[in-house]
Every structure is written in C-alpha cells, then in structure tokens.
Design goal:
By secondary structure, this protein is an all-alpha fold. It is built from six helices and no strands.
Length: 116
C-alpha cells in the first residue's frame, strides 16, 4: 500500500522513470495509490491479522504450533488493537461472521454455548 503511493510520487516527479513509465504499469500504480484501494488494503491487512491469530489457536489444538507463539502474537495484536481502528473493525467483522455461522441449525448447542 505504501509502495504504490511512493511509486506514484516517483512517477509524478519524473514521468520517464524506466519501468514506471510503461503505461500499463503506470495505470496499476495510480489505481493502487487511490484512496479506495488504500482503504481496502488496510481492511484486508486487519482481517488477515485476525485470521492468522485464529489459525494459531486451531494449530495449537491440532499440534502444529506451540502456545508461546500464539501468546506472543496475541500480545502484539492486543497492543495494535488499541491504536489501529482497522483492526478493531476486523475484529467486529469476524465476530459478526462467527455469530452468523453459529445461527446455522447444524451447529450443536454445546458449540454455541462455548462461543457465547
């Protein structure tokens, strides 16, 4: 995300930059530097951070990871949660997604009670 804005500044400063002067590459750089694409990238980053944390928990349960890695990761996420509104929105979206899946009739009552 930051790279697209840096490339845009380079193209604006020197339009004959070797690789960035290609019209196809320039179009991609301008598209990536747009506000909408930047916001979408931030949302994707927040969602992936939450999903990696959930993956670590599942990985501990199946024996693929250790608990210290998950603890360190979740401590980092706790710190980022306080300063990053995109991460807060990602947690809210993940929570609403989980609630939607919990409403399915095939989900056992014991699993629903564990989440709530």
């Amino acid at each position: 995300m930051k790279l697209a804005t840096e490339f845009k500044l380079m193209v604006d400063k020197n339009p004959s930059t070797p690789i960035l002067s290609n019209p196809k590459v320039r179009d991609i750089v301008y598209m990536g530097a747009g506000a909408q694409m930047q916001q979408m990238g931030k949302q994707m980053r927040g969602n992936s951070e939450v999903y990696v944390g959930i993956y670590l928990i599942v990985d501990i349960l199946i024996g693929g990871s250790n608990i210290m890695a998950a603890c360190f990761y979740w401590q980092m996420i706790r710190m980022r949660y306080t300063i990053c509104p995109d991460l807060k929105a990602a947690f809210a979206k993940t929570h609403s997604d989980i609630l939607m899946y919990m409403d399915y009739p095939v989900v056992p009552e014991s699993i629903r009670n564990m989440y709530f």
